[in-house]
Amino acid sequence: xxxxxxxxxxxxxxxxxxxxxxxxxxxNHNSMYWYRQDPGMGLRLIYYSASEGTTDKxxxxxxxxxxxxxxxxxxxxxxSAAPSQTSVYFCASSGLLGDNWVxxxxxxGEGSRLTVL
Amino acid sequence: xxxxxxxxxxxxxxEGRISILNCxxxxxxxxxxxxxxxxxxxxPTFLISISSIKDKxxxxxxxxxxNKSAKHLSLHIVPSQPGDSAVYFCAARNTGFQKLVFGTGxxxxxxx
Lengths: 117, 112
Known about the structure:
The structure holds 2 protein chains of 2 kinds.
Chain A: E1 4-7, E2 10-13, E3 19-25, E4 31-38, E5 42-49, E6 56-57, E7 64-68, E8 74-78, E9 87-94, E10 107-108, E11 112-116
Parallel strand pairs in A: 2-11
Antiparallel strand pairs in A: 1-3, 3-8, 4-5, 4-9, 5-6, 7-8, 9-10, 9-11
Chain B: E1 4-5, E2 10-14, E3 19-25, E4 30-38, E5 45-51, E6 56-59, E7 62-67, E8 72-77, E9 86-94, E10 101-102, E11 106-111
C-alpha cells in the first residue's frame, strides 16, 4: 500500500513564483491535512479538509490555498512564494471519528521540502 | 500561543537506559494525546496514544503517562535502543475535533 503520496519531494522556487503541492491517499480516508514543519516550531496545521467538499483554515493559512479535488486528493497552492514559506510540508489523512478511529491517528506522507530564494 | 509544549529540544541517553520525554499542554479541552516518531527524510509515524480517562497506556517498551491535573504527559522508553534515535512529537486533540495540535518535538539520541 502506498498510503499517503506527496509530490514533488523537493522544489526550489524564486520569490513570487507559484506552485502546487500534490497529495493523494489510497486508504479511503475522509479527512486530509497539510502541515508544515519548521525548526523549533514543530508541526503546524495550514489547512485541513474534514470531508470531500469542505476545507478549513488551520493555525498558519496565510499565503496558501487548498483544493480537495476528490476524496483521494488534496492539493496545497502557493500563489506568490515568499522566503518565509521555506519549509518541509507534510500531507496527512485520517478516518472519521467514531468510525474505527478512536485515537485520532493521522497517517503522514514523506514530506515535500520547499526552498524559496 | 503554543498549546502543546515540549520544553526539551534534545535528549541523550545510553542504550539500555530509560528515556523520558515530556510534554505539557494548556488546553483543558484536549481529550486525547498521541506520540509520533519521526526519522530524517520521513513522515511522522504514530507511536502510542492515551485517552484523558486513563493515566497510563503501555505498548511494549513504550509507556505514556498522563497527569491531567498538571496538564502533563510523558513518554517512557525502556530499554532504549539506538534505533529509537529520532524526533518525538507530542500531539493532542479537542473533544469532537479531528485535527491534531503538535508540540515542537524532542530529538532523542540513544548511544551504544
